[in-house]
Amino acid sequence: MSLELTILGFNSAVPTAYSHPSAQLLNIAERYFLIDCGEGTQVQLRKAKAKFNRINNIFISHLHGDHVFGLVGLISTLQLLGRDTPLNIHGPKGIEEFIMTQLRLTESNCSFKIVFNELSGKESVLVFEDDKVEVFSIPLNHRIYTNGYLFREKSKQRKLNMDAIEQYPEIEICDYQNLKNGRDYVMEDGTIIDNEDLTFEGPRALSYAYCSDTKYKPNIIPIIKGVDLLYHESTFLHEAKDLANYTGHSTAKEAGIIARDAEVGKLILGHFSNRYHDYSLLLNEAKIEFENTVLPKLLGTIKIKP
Amino acid sequence: MSLELTILGFNSAVPTAYSHPSAQLLNIAERYFLIDCGEGTQVQLRKAKAKFNRINNIFISHLHGDHVFGLVGLISTLQLLGRDTPLNIHGPKGIEEFIMTQLRLTESNCSFKIVFNELSGKESVLVFEDDKVEVFSIPLNHRIYTNGYLFREKSKQRKLNMDAIEQYPEIEICDYQNLKNGRDYVMEDGTIIDNEDLTFEGPRALSYAYCSDTKYKPNIIPIIKGVDLLYHESTFLHEAKDLANYTGHSTAKEAGIIARDAEVGKLILGHFSNRYHDYSLLLNEAKIEFENTVLPKLLGTIKIKP
């Protein structure tokens, strides 16, 4: 099991022939999550050879066009493809009106149910969970109400230490699940055998944090602490700090500081202003703060293994 | 002066890496009109090297996504480009709510005024005019309320016949505009000289009709009679006539019949279903009815000279 993040677009503001607004496809524990959906995202999904019908949850950070203008077109296409399973859309308050007004006026009779999960709080909350994964909001600080998202595998089961277990003939196969779940074993005579004596640690649960768009906001660090992979916007170089502040964005240096202080595994930059053509300037600035920083590659996939 | 039509997209329904939904840029008498605006149109405009700020009027045929999902993104980009001149959007009733709901929820403070001209009638009406051009609606028959548009240069001024004029020394330069406008000349002694004796016919006024989406609707013929260029949708081959009828579309054969009976100069087909890869089948079918039929070429420009 690994975590795979495919970058569908990483530019800010205006789409062009060569720059695509924010959108990512995350595969975590074989769940396919679409994160943000700027105009043209459905075409980027096709180019990435993504299977549209595997996407059951879409997470929208905020209602700026470069993060959401592709959503209604994607929904329309899912309908034309004959989808019938429900689609869950998580996003800021207003997203239901945003989508449903368009579907009503285009007289679209959606062939599947859309379940909206509107967020409006200022604290991190559990947004989604199933048996394998949980997703939390990361309240950010932008010009408009915005959340990042923390995607986390649930703690994985421990591995059985069969050599140790075989020394206790009274432990039966039906006890194995309890051991994998971390429970100690209680012998018939009342003796307790520590779980750690019967099992090994399981594979590490993986995690990914998406933080865009936001000003430098160090109080997200406790939420994203130790994630394997962090995407943090870096719209500007630090020399444009005033502009970053005015427009509610971060600099590459600030993204690096957040990554360093949150002790993440790897940092990906993104949401670059169209003023920059040589992204290595942004990369180098962030790397001074946090060495394991990479640039996004359009339609490239970053794999994280346990 | 000529009429130039640039095809930004000509496919129906679902955008892909290689097929783009309906959008056209028309230059008629140096007026730049955008006709329909499917998702990704702003990128197509960039690829066509169009000057965004020359576009002051946008004509939307109907509120299906493949004709309108790119409009809010284009407006958003115009705003980021610092536009301050008003933008006129002509389209079906509902288009103002469609756009303004999105601008409100994305908290866009538009830097320019958007003037909506909502159509709801069933008769052809004058939609726009200035000193050079007039635009009329063409009521169509689709699943949802739809209009095509007829773009027509106003009758052009007559050309002065200087050899004839010089025979009348009392005709002065200040009289020339009246002659160009077609007025007869009245001599001081009351004699009337026919305008046709003093001028030649001016260059022919050009016209273009955009008809998409629609079932076969022969009663549009009086409206589009004799246009220089007709775009008529041909979503299907005639063997799929039942499907065309069910979905409110035309076949290539029907597009050809409309062009023939309306005695147009040239027919362009378009709005092809994604089921077709060899468009020559559609072309050949239409050509049986009307020889001067062409296929659209992505980002290609068709020029019509007087």
Automatic annotation (TrEMBL), chains A, B:
Q: Give the record's cofactor note, including how many are bound.
A: Binds 2 Zn(2+) ions.
Question: Where does this protein hold Zn(2+) 1?
Answer: 62, 64, 142, 213
Q: Which reaction does it catalyse?
A: Endonucleolytic cleavage of RNA, removing extra 3' nucleotides from tRNA precursor, generating 3' termini of tRNAs. A 3'-hydroxy group is left at the tRNA terminus and a 5'-phosphoryl group is left at the trailer molecule
Q: Which family does it belong to?
A: Belongs to the RNase Z family.
Task: State the function annotated in the UniProt record.
Answer: Zinc phosphodiesterase, which displays some tRNA 3'-processing endonuclease activity. Probably involved in tRNA maturation, by removing a 3'-trailer from precursor tRNA.
- Residue numbers binding Zn(2+) 2: 66-67, 213, 271
PANTHER family per the UniProt record, alphabetical:
ZINC PHOSPHODIESTERASE ELAC PROTEIN 1
Write out the entry's keywords from A to Z. Answer: Endonuclease, Hydrolase, Metal-binding, Nuclease, tRNA processing, Zinc
The reply to whether DNA damage figures as a keyword in the UniProt entry is: no
GO molecular function list = 3'-tRNA processing endoribonuclease activity
This one is known as Ribonuclease Z
Is this entry keyworded Nucleotide-binding? no
- Note the subunit structure: Homodimer.
One Pfam family named in its UniProt record: Anti-Pycsar_Apyc1
What phylogenetic lineage does the species belong to? Bacteria, Pseudomonadati, Bacteroidota, Flavobacteriia, Flavobacteriales
- HAMAP family for the chain: RNase_Z_BN
- In the Enzyme Commission scheme, what number(s) does this protein have? 3.1.26.11
Which CDD domains does the UniProt record give? RNaseZ_ZiPD-like_MBL-fold
Name what cofactor the protein needs. Answer: Zn(2+)
Superkingdom, natural source: Bacteria
Q: Which InterPro entries match?
A: RibonucZ/Hydroxyglut_hydro, RNase_Z/BN
Q: Which residues form the active site?
A: 66
